[in-house]
Amino acid sequence: MSNIGLIGRKVGMTQVFQPDGTMVAVSVVAITPNTVTRLRTPDRDGYTAIALGTDEVKKLNKPDSGQLRDLPKVSTIREFRVDSVGSYEVGQTVAISDLFAAGDLVDVTGVSKGRGFAGVIKRHNFARGPKTHGSDHHRAPGSIGPGTTPGRVYRGLRMAGHMGNERVTVKKVRVIRADAERNLLLVSGSLPGSRGTLVLVKKA
Fold first, then answer.
1. In this structure, which of 16, 43, 104, 185 has its CB flanked by the most CB atoms within 10 Å?
2. What pTM, to 2 d.p., does this model score?
3. Cα–Cα distance between 122 and 106 in angstroms, integer?
4. For residues 181 and 177, what is the distance between their CA atoms, to the nearest angstrom?
């Protein structure tokens, strides 16, 4: 079953203490109330989803203004596939207190930090070659396949290349605290991306 989520931004990491004195490392996500901008239905769109918007701005271009009409001028819109639009209406706001509470398990999706072009040691955790006996094979990948058969490099072979800057979903992380007054959600552990990264949070 698909659930609606919320759009937020990663603020950073900190630590909180539980009632029993244990310390938990948490990621802080700022989630201002999201506005329902559109309801997708199978009859009209071929699928069921709820579009939410956030990050209000003073001015939008004409196409976006026409799409939003009398709704708040939100610059960030994302869709969440759901089984049914339920009682949601266009223009309705959805806040942290409507969906999340301490102890819930959530899936968080974001874009990981870009690391540029990386070698096999950094990218795939390869072991390095010998550093003595005249070897110059320190950080090279080694053999990438036999010669005559198959006479080519297999697709998907782990090699040097672009690292990071990918869509990553961290599943079943626990909500430590849901601060509805300050629009903050504290979840255990680390989340993908740097500070300010857009993240999507929905129930696991």
1. 185
2. 0.86
3. 29
4. 12
**How many C-beta atoms surround the C-beta of residue 107 within 10 A?**
16
Question: Residue 124's pLDDT is what?
Answer: 96
Q: pLDDT digits over 54-110, tens only?
A: 988 898 888 888 888 888 899 999 999 999 888 889 988 999 999 999 999 999 999
Query: How far is CA 198 from its chain centroid?
Result: 7
- Cβ count near 71 (within 10 Å): 15
SS (H, E, C) 1-36: CCCCEEEEEEEEEEEEECCCCCEEEEEEEECCCEEE
Q: Mind listing the pLDDT tens digit for each residue in 152-180?
A: 999 999 999 999 999 999 999 999 999 99
For residues 116 and 125, give the distance between their C-alpha atoms in angstroms, rounded to a whole number.
Answer: 16
Separation between Cα atoms, residue 155 and residue 145, nearest integer Å? 11
